[in-house]
Amino acid sequence: MIRFEDGFTDLPSIMARYRRGSPEYEVLSKLSESSRVYTYLSPEELEFEIGLRRGIIEASLALFRGRLAFRIFQESFCNERYWERRQDGGFVLRAGVRPSEAVDDIFANTRRYGTECATAIVMIFYKAVLDAYKPDLFDRTFTRIVLMNWRDMDPLIDPATYRGLADYIPGDCRYIRNPDVDPLTPEWQGENVIDLGGGRYYGHGIGLGDMDFFIEILNRNRREGAQVSAYLVDSATRPDFRGLYLYWKNAS
Amino acid sequence: MTGSPVSLLDNIRISDGPEILRNYFSELLHTSRNRLPELLSDRRLHFGTLYLLKSEIKSSGLQDTLPDMYRRALELSEELSGTGPGDTRPAGRRPGARPSYGHRAGYKGRNIGVMLSDAVTVRSLGWIVRTGWDSDMPEGPYECLMERCTSLLLAHMRDKSFLPLIADKIFERNRQGRLIHNLVWAFFEARDRESLYFLAHRLCSPDMRDAMLARKLLGFIPGTDDYSADSHVLYINALGWLSVNMPFMYYTGESLQMSPKPVFYAVSYEAKYLCRKVPADSGRPAVPPDKHEAGRLECFRRLDETQRQLLADVSYALFMQDKRRWESWIRLPVRDQLESAVHMTGGSA
After folding, report:
1. Number of compact structural domains in chain A
2. Cross-chain residue pair A216–B110, CB shorter than 8 Å
3. Do the bridges between strand A69-70 and strand A114-115 make them parallel or antiparallel, or are there none, so unpaired?
4. Which residues pair with residue A161 across a beta bridge?
């Protein structure tokens, strides 16, 4: 169930703003029907999180449509006008470049970028935050951006992995582990996917599909004689929705 | 040539770089070709040097003069460098399934089992990994090849003898800002709990980069996220925690790819409560619990996490102190066990 600390109780009025079947509606339904209590400071905080989750989904679809290339770190590439490729295969925002323009460039000129799946999720998180914050606030807030797996992310976004959750909802980053992966292709050890709602997921380097689709693809990249199937891990990685909301609210 | 710890060819590579090495080699080919088999057979030779001279060795037909191990290493460097497409074909006719764009590229298709049944291949792999992680070597394809060889030894063969070396390389490369993700993955895939000590001693490293990485890799040990703690105290506490929990720890399969703060190992509190060792692979005892143990576990599972941890800790502490007393204690109803555990720990539940 959803509880508001400011005493607001008219959840149906919030739900009425979203189309039945939309990811936003699915998020609200799952949270409100859960046996767990989800506490928000106000309806505004809930709507901010829903908006950010929507942004994560939109950014995932944009990367898919833009045909972001899959590359292992040793072969990663980026638009050098905005990003500097680091020795470890990550990308760092170039000095003197507007952070919002650099993030937007990934989605406008997607074919000029190639990386692996966790870094794609990091790109998605930054884009969703940019769309929520708008360029001015984003530029003031994120002056140093590193796109390298989960490493060196801005402490405000501060993604954390939650294990054994009661509910998984659209906009979550899930992980499919491939325990019997071919040791010669560790890039198939697992796949970070974004829950798009409606039982569909986006995973960079594989595409869009239901969970069976992803598991089947990962299973095809196991070692000879593999016995154990790839499986969805009981966890989700989420940005710090509350921290991002409070910062946005105070800055607005 | 004896006496020096470095072979002549390695020395040239390390001091003057790959180009001078290749020039020197080409010059010898024309002036003293007879010397080359001896130089290439030097048992101190590092794989990186052989790799850099691969084209010259092949074009001059010298590969047949190489010792078996070195010749096989050169063959492996080609076999394991292939980049065929990974398999991302659409999964049947499931609704919503469609091919992806930006297909993953990657090596695929070798029968590893057959390859590793050959003793020379295994020796060659060992030599490649022991000598090939030199920091002056180029990144890109060479680094991929090294990762693959290391994965074969650690993730597939689970050869624990390479773990100290790979731990060193992980920290060294981290200091240099180089890629470590796949090395870390291979290190943990060896599923060797004892290897955690190779990481733990870096908790008190004077180099902050080492200490921070050690904290991250050992994030499952309580206290490693307390940045105000004295590093030596943290180290001692970590060693203590590892030695108490080691028999009950299991590899979770988490990785730096999966999570910003992966939990690489977890403690099976059920196993600790029953004082039954578990394999690092599964976290489940090799022999299933008997009827009485299963009954106890059923009650144990109904407790909340804090209570389960408390009972597990107290049970094992009692077991180590006084096995007879433990045997009576473990037969008590869980409620009584909990009460006595709270009492024994000074009411810390």
Report:
1. 1
2. no
3. parallel
4. A237
* The model's pTM: 0.92
Query: Is A167:A31 a contact under the CB 8 Å cutoff?
Result: yes
Domain end (from B107, B129, B157): B157
Instruction: Give the bridge partners for B265, in sequence order.
Output: B251
Mean pLDDT, residues A127-155:
97
Task: Give a yes or no: residue A226 inside a domain.
Answer: yes
A20-50 tens-digit pLDDT:
999 999 999 999 999 999 999 999 999 999 9
In a domain, A227, yes or no: yes
The C-alpha of B279 sits at a distance from chain A's nearest C-alpha, in angstroms, of 16
Q: What is the DSSP letter of B152?
A: I
Indicate the number of domains in chain B.
3
- CA B302 to CA A52: how far, in whole Å? 37
Task: Measure the CA–CA gap between B173 and A110, rounded to whole angstroms.
Answer: 30
| Cβ–Cβ below 8 Å for B104 and A89 | no
Element (H, E) at A174: strand A173-177
- Whether residue B291 is predicted with pLDDT greater than 90 in this model: the reply is no
In the listed set B100, B130, B157, which residue is the last one of a domain according to the structure?
B157
For testing the chain B interface, which of A147, A175, A184 should be mutated: the one with the most B CBs within 10 Å? A184
Cα–Cα nearest to A63, from A135, A140, A115: A115
C-alpha to C-alpha distance for A24 and A33, rounded to whole angstroms? 14
- The answer on B302 and B245 residing in a single domain is no
Which position has the token pair 């004082």? Answer: B275
My answer on whether B58 and B171 are in the same domain is no
Distance in Å from the first CA to the final CA of chain A: 29
Do the strands A69-70 and A173-177 form a parallel or antiparallel pair, or are they unpaired?
unpaired
- Domain span at residue A200 reads 161-236
